[in-house]
Structures are given as structure tokens and as C-alpha cells.
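Friendly challenge for the regulars: who can give me the C-alpha cells for this chain first? No prize, just bragging rights.
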Amino acid sequence: MNIGDRIPEILGIDQDGKEIKASDYRGRKIVLYSYPKANTSGCTAEACSLQAHKQELESLGYSIVGISKDKQAAQKKFATEQGLDFPLIADTETSVLQALGCWGEKVACGHRTIGILRTTYLVNEEGVIEKIFTPKEIKTKIHAEQILEYLKK
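First reply, four minutes later:
Bragging rights claimed.
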């Protein structure tokens, strides 16, 4: 997906078994971020950064939604262990990740693999992407600060 594209209507099922749709957020903005695997160091750092700045993001009109290939039970465990109180979508079939364009070839430890490309989309009140943070831009430990810095420009 590119800036100006509309995100998919059906985003998936979150850690609590609730179906999450883009229209659930109509009139609100979304920080929609994809991450490779729950409870790994980088993904935990990123999620905790977002959680720590959740109120500030909400004050700017943003809701946080995460998505990965993890199963619903893994998402639930991740949310519980890390104190995350925002939806974590379990896209086990990768259909939404593929539609978003954050599923593809990457290099990890010198090996080429297919998987989730850590990406963040800032989505406006109409479900349209306004900004994309690419994998090379994202610094997991301070990702929320990166988003806030961008939003305050």
C-alpha cells in the first residue's frame, strides 16, 4: 500500500476474539503497525514504546492497532504480559499483512526469508494512509517518539 490508499475494511480478529474493522475507527485516526513476532525483544520494545505514549497519541486523535502472524493465544499472552491495552490482530493467514504490503522478502542474519516487514501506517479518519514508516526507519525502543515527532511537525 501507498500513501493515499485506503486500508482494508476487515483487519482481523484481535487477542480477545473481537473482529476489528477499519470502519470501527471511522472519525478517528489509527497508528496501525505490523511486527514480526510477539514477545521477542524488538517487538516488545516497540509495543511498550507505543503503550507508554498511548495517552499522548490518543490526545492527538490516534488509536493504536498492532498486527502480526501470531495466533490469537500468543497475542493474548503478549498483551497480558506486557500490559498492552490496544488490539493485537492475529493474521495467521497473512491476508491483511499481504494486502498492506508488509509481508515479503527480508534479510535476517544474512539469510533471505519471507515474513513480516516491520511497518507503521498512520491512517486518517477516513481510513486513508497518510504516512508510512518503513522497516529501515523504525527504531523499536523509541518508535512512539518517532511518530510523535512526525505528528508535531
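Residues 138 and 153 are 18 Å apart (CA to CA). The longest strand covers residues 62-68. Your move, everyone else.
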